[in-house]
Amino acid sequence: MSRQQLTVADLGELELLRRLRPFCAPHGLGDDAAVLPPRSQSQVITTDVLVNGVHFSDRTTPPDAVGWRAIAANLSDLAAMGARPVGVTVGLALPSDTPLAWIEGVYGGMADCLQAYGGEIIGGDVARSSQKVLSITAVGEVSPQRVIRRDRAQAGQVILATGWHGLSHAGLELLLQPERQQDLPIVACDTFIQAHQRPVPRFDVIHQLATWSDDQLSAIAGMDSSDGLANAVLWLCQASGLGARLQRSRLPIAPALTRWMGEQTALDWCLYGGEDFELVLCLSTDSAQQLLVTLGAGASIIGTIETDSQVLLIDDVGQEPDLALTWDGCFQHF
Amino acid sequence: MSRQQLTVADLGELELLRRLRPFCAPHGLGDDAAVLPPRSQSQVITTDVLVNGVHFSDRTTPPDAVGWRAIAANLSDLAAMGARPVGVTVGLALPSDTPLAWIEGVYGGMADCLQAYGGEIIGGDVARSSQKVLSITAVGEVSPQRVIRRDRAQAGQVILATGWHGLSHAGLELLLQPERQQDLPIVACDTFIQAHQRPVPRFDVIHQLATWSDDQLSAIAGMDSSDGLANAVLWLCQASGLGARLQRSRLPIAPALTRWMGEQTALDWCLYGGEDFELVLCLSTDSAQQLLVTLGAGASIIGTIETDSQVLLIDDVGQEPDLALTWDGCFQHF
What we know:
Two copies of one chain form a homodimer.
Chain A: H1 8-20, E1 34-36, E2 42-51, H2 63-80, E3 84-94, H3 100-117, E4 120-128, E5 133-142, E6 158-161, H4 167-176, H5 186-197, H6 203-209, H7 214-218, E7 221-224, H8 229-240, E8 243-247, H9 255-261, H10 263-272, E9 279-283, H11 285-292, E10 300-306, E11 311-314, E12 323-324
Parallel strand pairs in A: 3-4, 8-11
Antiparallel strand pairs in A: 2-5, 3-5, 6-9, 6-10, 7-9, 8-10, 11-12
């Protein structure tokens, strides 16, 4: 039987685990649990569950992209806390007829992403199921006084988004309806599809923040925008007991997205598309300006933190009435 | 709509997470990731995936038992490393029609088990799927020089099993075929079913080992018997590059199990049944005797570590030929 045709049922669990060892930390996997040496830093831990047909599918996501995205989603949560990656565990539930080649592709994508941003696969488990499910847990570390949290926004701060929003959703649409790729310049197509299949956790931002003093850093609130930009602003405001005014003209919507889909759809995808894995930070104007210099196209000061509890989208050119953003519009997983 | 009838689709993700908060660590869940303070100990991390229809089912496992077992399986891996529990993350994949009452039952069982043995729910994620899948990651801590590993068995050591084996499998059979409960004394029924639904991670053994010197402890090899007693002995021998002789008469088979199922089936379930979550330790005869005094019924010195690589089951009363145990007989998840 060729390697391409082998399934997990052909291999059995022990042989499958043996085949996956080359993707994992060299000294892991031999005991009941992985051991990390003592550290002087705070440990940061996050879990993400990805389900075939919900978060990825054969139509939209080749196996290496499934692996990359699964790790990127978790690493983005670590970045949002100001932490650097240490290791991940991989929980896999798989149908018996899953090809070995698919699993190796997923592990290859995971290893690529860890290679790029840090951390190793230190453990995991595999079980039989009717639907492919990945549950990744990532562990990171950060100096206790340099943890970035959601509940530290202050009135008068500005809100900074570190890059374009809506591109991952645009990529998904192009993958689901390939005929629409004809309407778009190749460069835009590639950018959108890449945003969906190979999102970039923003450790470049965290490296910039590493040069800041404890005092400057402790005045920041932040999180990632994995569930959409509106969701992130709503979370930051709710956790801090405050509100926000967002300026419609400052939202990080790529011009190519507006040209393709029109203003209203581009706005929807920016606010609610999700899975862009950018950071949304609340900080002083000076700090925001300092950071903006180092960020690429798409990064933008999108609004301000206010003392009331509303999150309003203001049309600063006066064409549309103010729009109150609510949780109802945000992505619901059920 | 009554609380009993509510499903996750009725609630939506945000409301579901709000309902689960009372089961979780009081200050967790508000950020992208959980934060654990710096520790002077080694961190120990393990992941287990449990799937409806494979590891549990409505026929055999009420929701609180699903939660208890999921946590117990992970905590047992921590115990096997000599570690104490710190926290767990819970990855859930659930069909939209899953009742809230089922999820609350699972979380209640998880919280009960953590209450009994230590640790808190510090984070997690929930996603939509066609089949219920739980992926638990547990974090523990242990002094770096007191980690118990598999690869430290030495020829001349004895092999100690900390309790009966095969009872969890017996409980499963009784739950799948309730009519067979009539053949058994009530006390045996309850014991077997309890072994399946509410297994006990052996932290009592770890507490005993805590009184030992670093030197005495570092001479131990060990793991848990979650995949069966034969699997544990094979792992310990393979990791240490050694073999073993097990004495048939010393295997930890409960007399009630033999009376019920006969010698051969009781032997099979003891060796291959799995999910007993006992510890299997390789240590000096003196250390083993010292530990045995504190252990309950079922604990037994089952054999010795040998210099060759075979794992042989010896019939010490001379009725049966020696039997070589192999990986083939062990539980395969696919």
